[in-house]
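Much of our argument rests on the idea that a fold can be written as discrete symbols. In the encoding step, the backbone of a single protein was reduced to a row of integers, each denoting a local shape. We regard such an encoding as a compact summary of how the chain folds. The record that follows shows the chain in one-letter code together with its fold in token form:
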Amino acid sequence: MSPAPYWLHTARLAMRRFTPDDLPLLCALYGDERVARHVGGVKSPQQCAEMLRERILDYYGKRPGLGIWVTALRTGGQAIGLHLLNHIRGEPHIQVGYVLAAAHWGHGCATEGARALLYYGYVHRGLARITAITGADNLASQHVLAKCGLRRHGERVLAHPSYGGVPLAWFELDAADWRARATAQVPLGIRPECA
């Protein structure tokens, strides 16, 4: 199966839909303890296959224009992780997020992709508010969210069992505040029909 077309381009990144052929990417991300400790723990290949089928591929049809997308480097096309704009599990809130391979931490890719998705969410999807969650101790990810303009609003314990009943740092950004603060990097190209 050939990869889906890239629908969003920033200066360094491109995003596209996942396909069944992207299972090795998920297994690599969620099989790395350094990465997985921030996203619910290491997942087996079977768990990754279930995630790909139920939380990623099926979601595209249920919530057009939202989802989880492969994030690749524009130069060379190497897949380095994922970015998302989707519903927090078990919640009505739409979140922005990212999971990157450890080799690509600290280079601004999480911020660049998240800013592009905020732009997409507010300008192309007309969202009134976008949220984000991180582990309470994940200061690096919280720093990324703050750079993108999201503000921390304490901690929340989410009901869905996948969150383990632990308090998570909760971030929010309203569309009006986003526009007033002009925190977004405008993507170089968006084809929302492919999202």
Summary: The chain has one domain: 6-194. The longest strand covers residues 79-87. The helical segments are 23-31, 33-36, 45-62, 109-124, 139-147, 175-181.
